[in-house]
Amino acid sequence: MLNTAFARLSKGLMALALCACAAGPALAQGTKVAYVATERLMTDSKLAKLADAKIEAEFSKRDKAIKDQVESYKSALAAFEKSMAGMSEADRGKRTRELRDMELDIQRKRREFGEDLNQRRNEERAIIAQRASKIIERIALDEGIDIVLQDVAFYSSRADITDKILKELDK
Length: 171
Prior knowledge:
The protein is mainly alpha-helical. It is 77% helix and 4% strand. The two termini are 26 Å apart.
């Protein structure tokens, strides 16, 4: 779910690792395994930081507009509560509906904002994942690594090639 490129790579490599281990100690002893912390690639790389800044700039106006609308709603609600006692039943009902509509509009805008923001983040992460996948494959071939894993319960720092991937990704 983090990104499909890494997910496919991870599943395939995990299957390969299991096959290698099941094939016997002789094969497993000669198998070189490495680990990549994919979340670090998505947060620590220069590419990820640039993407975050780009997304922030893209969505800041919309975020501010929603915050302004929330403040407007709060002010209108406070004014309504102060003047509610002197209003007729019809005016109170009309104003209550208007405030409810404002609140629903804010909720809808927040939901759409969150969905759009997540979609943009996923698009940018997919670009990073695609580039990282190619780099991982190239480094694995260059260094004779048979299996590259991600999202594991335990790994030794000797097997971690994340810094190498980050360095190449930041070029």
